[in-house]
């Protein structure tokens, strides 16, 4: 009743509106003071006070009937409240949707749009609100601001179709739903706030720039994973030219370097990596990519140096900075975008580089260090995936990682001429690999943004690599019958692996099992594609390199020789 009395006259209404607006502005100033403080209990308490103050102010505003004169302030308070909640949570979640929905319903209340208010989907509410907004030009700046937050929520939750339709409506576009989202974001022009508008934590245009950069980066990564390299390059260039804080810019430069390396342009890739490592902090991703680039160029010394620097960088404890009290690019990136490389993969690549450089003993030392760090993650019982489904905490990637350690240790012993130890390590690798039953399309050890590989593909190739490696050691020891069993099994566990097929063919020929060799050779000749080469681009680099080691040097010549001998 008190509110109704206060708003009984125009003077009282204006007086309350001024008080509410001053309260909003005071809370925004208070948040900006807190922003300049370092991480502390005082900062935390100050931010919490601002959040509760905005919540209380919103409760007061929404306790009254909606009016057009108050709605610009009310929508601004909603935007400030959502911005602060999302920044404190360090991400957008669906529990922010009811605040947006309530704001849209309040706009429709002023137009007595009862039927539209019954629409429960946000997409439908936005259609109704933006349809009537032409009658309420004073609401447009605040509505565009709220639309920016809706766009952030839909981008974070991958509702790209809804986001596209929303932006088309905001832009007044008549295009089809297939119009490129990146172009829609670039052409969106939120109205400029008037000088006497209520204060905001972040204006709509700043939010638009953040959305543009985040989407361009997400799109570039998606295209990089699927192998659309020219499109990925374009999207990543767009991200790099946008509003990028330093940590995100390092990730964008690293992704650009990865893209250019895959396109066969190592010198341009190197330029982006140089830019990425500039500054006081040493970042993990560009160092890891540098090692891959040097490996591709055959510069083993530089590759090892990059990996050594990477291990050093990963061992440094970084003091976290206080998060900004606004929407930043990092908040809109998917959790497939880790801030740094995974440590096991770094160690595995270092071991591969050392073996390639002829430093087998050093490679064994690296493997032993990684084994000491990861073996405790394995469950005591062998039913790894059953345990995982029951809720145990070990990483689903730990078994492939540890298997890869045994595989590389076996290869190091091969280089040292210790056949018994090599066979033992390959056998331990296989024992562990055949205990694992992966889920389809679950990220495997190649879980960084560069890779689009699933765990079953990695496991398949690891099993084939271990079987071929052990088979080659049997061959070296004159035990062709044992080698035959491993090569047969490698063909079964990884159909289409041509390396396994060639090794099997050669072994059958040495054993003078002519009929079987001819039958197998005919099947091999009928294979027109090379699935192994087409698939391995998405494997982790240590595994790609390993597969190169066990590949017959000249398969075509071997096939021709076999064809001639048969004829």
From TrEMBL:
<dbReference type="InterPro" id="IPR011990">
    <property type="entry name" value="TPR-like_helical_dom_sf"/>
</dbReference>
<dbReference type="GO" id="GO:0043240">
    <property type="term" value="C:Fanconi anaemia nuclear complex"/>
</dbReference>
<protein>
    <submittedName>
        <fullName>FA complementation group G</fullName>
    </submittedName>
</protein>
<dbReference type="GO" id="GO:0016020">
    <property type="term" value="C:membrane"/>
</dbReference>
<dbReference type="GO" id="GO:0036297">
    <property type="term" value="P:interstrand cross-link repair"/>
</dbReference>
<dbReference type="InterPro" id="IPR019734">
    <property type="entry name" value="TPR_rpt"/>
</dbReference>
<dbReference type="GO" id="GO:0006506">
    <property type="term" value="P:GPI anchor biosynthetic process"/>
</dbReference>
<dbReference type="InterPro" id="IPR039684">
    <property type="entry name" value="FANCG"/>
</dbReference>
């Amino acid at each position: 009743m008190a509110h109704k009395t206060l708003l009984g006259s125009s003077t009282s209404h204006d007086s309350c509106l001024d008080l509410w607006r001053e309260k909003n502005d005071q809370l925004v100033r208070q948040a900006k003071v807190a922003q300049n403080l370092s991480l502390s209990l005082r900062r935390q308490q100050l931010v919490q006070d601002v959040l509760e103050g905005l919540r209380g102010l919103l409760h007061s505003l929404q306790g009254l009937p909606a009016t057009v004169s108050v709605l610009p302030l009310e929508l601004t308070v909603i935007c400030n409240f959502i911005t602060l909640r999302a920044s404190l949570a360090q991400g957008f979640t669906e529990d922010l949707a009811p605040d947006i929905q309530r704001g849209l319903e309040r706009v429709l209340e002023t137009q007595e749009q009862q039927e539209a208010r019954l629409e429960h989907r946000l997409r439908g509410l936005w259609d109704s609100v933006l349809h009537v907004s032409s009658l309420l030009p004073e609401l447009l700046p605040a509505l565009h601001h709220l639309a920016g937050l809706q766009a952030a929520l839909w981008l974070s939750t991958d509702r790209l179709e809804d986001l596209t339709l929303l932006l088309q409506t905001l832009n007044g576009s008549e295009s089809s739903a297939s119009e490129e989202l990146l172009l829609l974001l670039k052409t969106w022009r939120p109205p400029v706030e008037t000088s006497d508008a209520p204060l905001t934590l972040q204006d709509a245009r700043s939010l638009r720039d953040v959305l543009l950069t985040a989407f361009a980066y997400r799109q570039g990564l998606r295209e990089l994973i699927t192998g659309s390299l020219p499109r990925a390059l374009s999207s990543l260039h767009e991200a790099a030219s946008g509003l990028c804080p330093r940590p995100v810019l390092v990730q964008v430069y690293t992704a650009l370097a990865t893209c250019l390396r895959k396109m066969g342009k190592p010198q341009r890739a190197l330029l982006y990596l140089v830019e990425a490592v500039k500054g006081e902090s040493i970042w993990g991703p560009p160092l890891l990519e540098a090692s891959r680039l040097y490996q591709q160029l055959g510069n083993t010394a530089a590759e090892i140096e990059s990996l050594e620097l990477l291990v050093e960088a990963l061992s440094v404890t970084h003091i976290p900075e206080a998060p900004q009290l606004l929407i930043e690019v990092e908040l809109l990136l998917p959790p497939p975008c880790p801030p740094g490389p995974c440590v096991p993969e770094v160690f595995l690549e270092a071991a591969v580089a050392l073996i390639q450089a002829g430093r087998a003993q050093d490679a064994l030392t690296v493997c032993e260090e990684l084994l000491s760090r990861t073996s405790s993650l394995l469950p005591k019982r062998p039913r790894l995936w059953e345990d995982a489904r029951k809720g145990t905490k070990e990483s689903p990637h730990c078994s492939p990682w540890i298997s890869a350690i045994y595989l590389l240790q076996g290869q190091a012993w091969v280089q040292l001429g210790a056949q018994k130890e090599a066979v033992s390590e390959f056998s331990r690798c296989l024992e562990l690999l055949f205990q694992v039953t992966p889920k389809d399309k679950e990220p495997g050890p190649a879980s960084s943004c560069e890779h689009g590989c699933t765990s079953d593909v990695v496991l398949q190739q690891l099993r084939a690599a271990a079987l071929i490696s052990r088979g080659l050691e049997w061959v070296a020891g004159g035990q062709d019958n044992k080698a035959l069993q491993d090569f047969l099994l490698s063909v079964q566990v990884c159909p289409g692996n041509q390396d396994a097929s060639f090794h099997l063919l050669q072994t059958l020929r040495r054993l003078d099992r002519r009929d079987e060799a001819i039958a197998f050779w005919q099947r091999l000749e009928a294979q027109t594609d090379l699935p192994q080469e087409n698939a391995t681009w998405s494997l982790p680099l240590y595994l790609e390199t390993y597969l190169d080691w066990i590949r017959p040097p000249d398969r075509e010549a071997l096939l021709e020789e076999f064809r001639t001998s048969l004829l």
